[in-house]
């Protein structure tokens, strides 16, 4: 140590040791703060899960905000350890924010779009939607991206600006949905009897809503069949099961009562032309 003091100028060794100690303390503060930020995020999410009727859309957003607040406080504490004043920190953050804002305009658009999605709620966690050229169940709405799970189990992450700037079709937003099923019968079948049969059949279906009233109507006189449309309303959660069962049962019911669902067909007439001499 005495030899090192002889080589190093007086005061430089003490200053170096002080800076090394400050750097070590700053690293410890950063590690502890980052760990606490993770704990705060998990505790915030756990606390919101215990709140009854808490919107699942806001849970990941609020927990992430709590995490980022702790991280910002940690960074300020680290800078303060090196003697940087708060006013200087604010000035540096302002300048850095301006530079980052100019460099990351697309990212800021995603943040703004994420805020608008959370305020206006065109979609929520758990909804099945079509947006930004994709479809799936909303898993999480973040500040930058929205995460989806497709019907075949794939994970999709879509920028919020793409969703906010396009059309969103939400299949779960309304409480009820209209069912339209078109079925064709043969031209040789009795149309009046078919309409009466299908109307009685449709009104007997479970999970069908009485208001609006169901309707059975002729939609088209097609090339090979008379197309009849069955229309009714059901609750949104019952839609897919109701449609699948209706398609199966209407075919069985028509055939059991002697009606025919014809294949597309075309009549060809051959005319014999006599040869001329």
Automatic annotation (TrEMBL):
Location in or out of the cell: Cell inner membrane; Cell membrane
GO cellular component terms listed in the entry, alphabetical order:
plasma membrane
Q: Which InterPro entries match?
A: LSM_dom_sf, MS_channel_1st, MS_channel_C, MSC_TM_helix, MscS_archaea/bacteria_type, MscS_beta-dom_sf, MscS_channel_2nd, MscS_channel_C_sf
Record Pfam families:
MS_channel_1st (PF21088), MS_channel_1st_1 (PF05552), MS_channel_2nd (PF00924), MS_channel_3rd (PF21082)
The UniProt GO MF terms for this protein read: mechanosensitive monoatomic ion channel activity
Keywords for this protein: Cell inner membrane, Cell membrane, Ion channel, Ion transport, Membrane, Transmembrane, Transmembrane helix, Transport
| Superkingdom of the organism of origin | Bacteria
Work out whether the entry's keyword set contains Cell membrane: yes
**Residue intervals of the Mechanosensitive ion channel transmembrane helices 2/3 domain:** 64-105
Please list every transmembrane segment annotated in the UniProt record, as residue ranges: 20-40, 61-84, 90-120
**Residue ranges annotated for the Mechanosensitive ion channel MscS C-terminal domain, each copy included:** 179-258
Q: Provide the topology term for how it sits in the membrane.
A: Multi-pass membrane protein
Q: Where is the Mechanosensitive ion channel MscS domain?
A: 107-172
Report the sequence similarity comment from the record: Belongs to the MscS (TC 1.A.23) family.
Subunit composition and interactions: Homoheptamer.
Name used for this protein in its record: Small-conductance mechanosensitive channel
Organism of origin is Aestuariispira insulae
């Amino acid at each position: 140590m005495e030899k090192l003091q002889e080589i190093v100028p007086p005061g430089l060794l003490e200053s170096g040791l002080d800076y090394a100690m400050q750097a070590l303390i700053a690293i410890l503060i950063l590690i502890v703060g980052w760990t606490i930020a993770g704990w705060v995020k998990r505790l915030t999410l756990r606390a919101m899960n215990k709140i009854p009727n808490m919107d699942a859309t806001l849970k990941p957003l609020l927990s992430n905000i709590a995490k980022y607040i702790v991280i910002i406080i940690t960074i300020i504490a680290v800078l303060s350890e090196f003697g940087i004043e708060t006013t200087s920190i604010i000035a540096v953050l302002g300048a850095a924010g301006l530079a980052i804002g100019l460099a990351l305009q697309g990212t800021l658009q995603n943040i703004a779009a994420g805020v608008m999605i959370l305020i206006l709620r065109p979609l929520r966690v758990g909804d099945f939607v079509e947006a930004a050229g994709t479809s799936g169940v909303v898993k999480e709405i973040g500040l930058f991206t929205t995460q989806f799970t497709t019907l075949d189990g794939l994970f999709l992450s879509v920028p919020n600006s793409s969703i906010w700037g396009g059309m969103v079709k939400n299949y779960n937003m309304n409480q009820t949905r209209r069912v339209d099923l078109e079925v064709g019968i043969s031209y040789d079948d009795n149309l009046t009897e078919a309409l009466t049969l299908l109307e009685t059949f449709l009104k007997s279906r479970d999970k069908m809503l009485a208001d609006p009233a169901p309707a059975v109507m002729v939609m088209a006189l097609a090339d090979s069949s008379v197309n009849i449309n069955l229309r009714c309303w059901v609750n949104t959660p019952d839609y897919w099961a109701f449609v699948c069962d209706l398609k199966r049962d209407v075919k069985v019911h028509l055939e059991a009562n002697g009606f025919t669902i014809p294949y597309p067909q075309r009549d060809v007439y051959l005319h014999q032309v006599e040869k001329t001499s």
